[in-house]
Amino acid sequence: MPFPYVLLSAAVSLDGFLDDTGPERLLLSGPADFDRVDAVRASVDAILIGAGTIRADNPRLLVNAAERRAARVAAGRPEYPLKVAVSGSGDLDPDARFWHTGGEKVLYTTDEGAERARRAGVAADVVPLGPGLDWPALLSHLYEARGVRRLMVEGGGTVHSQLLRQGLADELQLVVAPLLVGDPGAPRLFGPGEYQRGRLRLLETRRIEDVVLMRYEPTAPGSGPTAVAADRHWLRIACELAVRCPPSRTAFSVGAVVVAADGTELARGFSREAGDPVVHAEEAALAKIDPADPRLAAATVYSSLEPCARRASRPAPCARLILDAGVRRVVTAWREPDTFVAGADGSGLLTAAGADVVVLPEYGAEAREPNRHLLG
Ligand SMILES: NC(=O)c1ccc[n+]([C@@H]2O[C@H](COP(=O)([O-])OP(=O)(O)OC[C@H]3O[C@@H](n4cnc5c(N)ncnc54)[C@H](OP(=O)(O)O)[C@@H]3O)[C@@H](O)[C@H]2O)c1
Hints:
This is Riboflavin biosynthesis protein RibD. Converts 2,5-diamino-6-(ribosylamino)-4(3h)-pyrimidinone 5'-phosphate into 5-amino-6-(ribosylamino)-2,4(1h,3h)-pyrimidinedione 5'-phosphate. Pfam families: dCMP_cyt_deam_1, RibD_C. It is a single chain. Helix 4 links the parallel strand 4 and strand 5. The longest helix is centred in the middle third of the chain and has 14 residues. The strands form two sheets. The protein has a nine-stranded mixed β-sheet. The chain has eleven helices and 14 strands. 26% of the residues lie in helices and 20% in strands. It is an alpha/beta fold. The protein has two domains: 213 residues, Dihydrofolate Reductase, subunit A, CATH 3.40.430.10; 146 residues, Cytidine Deaminase, domain 2. The radius of gyration is 23 Å and the shape is elongated. Bound molecules: NADP nicotinamide-adenine-dinucleotide phosphate. NADP nicotinamide-adenine-dinucleotide phosphate (NAP) binds next to strand 1, strand 2, helix 2 and helix 6.
């Protein structure tokens, strides 16, 4: 299921609160950061918030700068990003500003919530997702039915926590403001619960007046057959590596990365790397790792093309090398076509041996691109 790129955006106090318990919204950033947020809003296809934020803040969620809206229109996009609200209960104030400002709105809710929201006259496209609210279904619907490729999530804490816990966040943009709230009843950015393992990767820090912006991305692979946002991140890197392969008319160009369960990159490789005319990407990457490395057992191999099942150039195909290395999870973008080997089924070989193979076909075009000359 392809999903949009999901960017979580929030401002917090030094003690990790999103707000205080007063009736007015606590302003954590200053004008320069609000302007940065406005630019991020202008860059995305949709902005999502939870019903709790609509109730607490009554926000408009607009792109405020006229020149940014004009640039969107000039680029053939709607003046405002799609506004997306999430509510289980459907218990929403139809007069809230969210519904009466900006462009199109969509409300994702439950079957029961949809009835209640429609009865109340909420001015939005109301989409029921069943008896409960299912985040993958919601993201998939935004991607398929609404064409959303970049989604900005502006809170609150309940929504942010769920997306991060379920491995659905591609990036976190966090602003830390120099004040303390100290009220245990105030909402926190991330509530207690089971989050993915490992450290997030720090992409950027930036001082903006007296606040600090930090951008992070999750790196820990998913487990089993379920893909998380970090899986897409690593598979994109594998596809980028495929572009670096020395060209060939007799073999595919493939990139591969091996990543430990905590998100540590163990090795990467690509076809025909370092002057070896027959080395495959997975083989090149695995050769750089100590076979006794205990992290291999829980590692994931990302390969732009499914690992080969048969090859003439070396005794063992890559699917076998992966299994022999102890790896039991592979993420790939593209099943091997019959170009060189008829009926190659590296995924079958891997799954028959108990490994999980996750295919993310939304990266297939990227994986095929450096092989276009072979595909006729
Ligand atoms: N500082 C910042 O950057 C920032 C940004 C945004 C918000 N905030 C603050 O955050 C606070 C609000 O946060 P919050 O955590 O209370 O609310 P929230 O995350 O905005 O919304 C939570 C609501 O969303 C719906 N929801 C979310 N996940 C659901 C699921 N899996 N199933 C069913 N319904 C689901 C539920 O709506 P129903 O109750 O309708 O079922 C739930 O009560 C406010 O104080 C606001 O000021 C701060």
